[in-house]
Amino acid sequence: MIAKRYEPFWKTKSMLDMDSQEWESLCDGCGKCCLQKLQDEEDDAVYYTNLACAQLDISACRCRVYEDRQQHVAECLVLKPEDVAQFDWLPDTCSYRVLRETGDLPNWHPLVTGSDKEMLRQGLSVRHYAVTETSVDEDRWQEHIIRWVHGMPEPFEP
Ligand code: SF4
Ligand code: SF4
């Protein structure tokens, strides 16, 4: 008898049908969305920096206040399945975005490989290059603008 091939939940369920544990587990823990962003006042373009929110434990790439993060950081956005169509502001390697755009998770995702080793090996976590926002005066944040090329950060001048 041929065993039925197991299909993981992210391939069989829509994001709207996932339970909260499944939804949270889609996050690969890269920390990119916890980097400060600057918005151009003229054309509203958004630029990421390598400056991490003060609540991000950079070495572990984990939010220190995750459960009640919006009470600590009012502008921290909570990702919800019903908002998935508006996820274009997320980095293009963000697993929520990749799943929405391709129907699958990236092959380095911890849910696919069983650990975060492969994503760390590929340098996809901000722990390799982020510095905390409090270490830089706000009038110099512009010098920290980056863009990602194949998931890796490069200094960028808009
Ligand atoms: S960018 Fe996406 S995958 Fe990375 S930490 Fe943020 S929500 Fe999770
Ligand atoms: S409060 Fe936590 S989840 Fe929100 S941006 Fe800061 S570190 Fe990230």
UniProtKB/TrEMBL annotation:
It comes from the Bacteria. Coiled coil: none annotated. Pfam families: CxxCxxCC (PF03692). Belongs to the UPF0260 family. This is UPF0260 protein FJM67_13345. It comes from Maribrevibacterium harenarium.
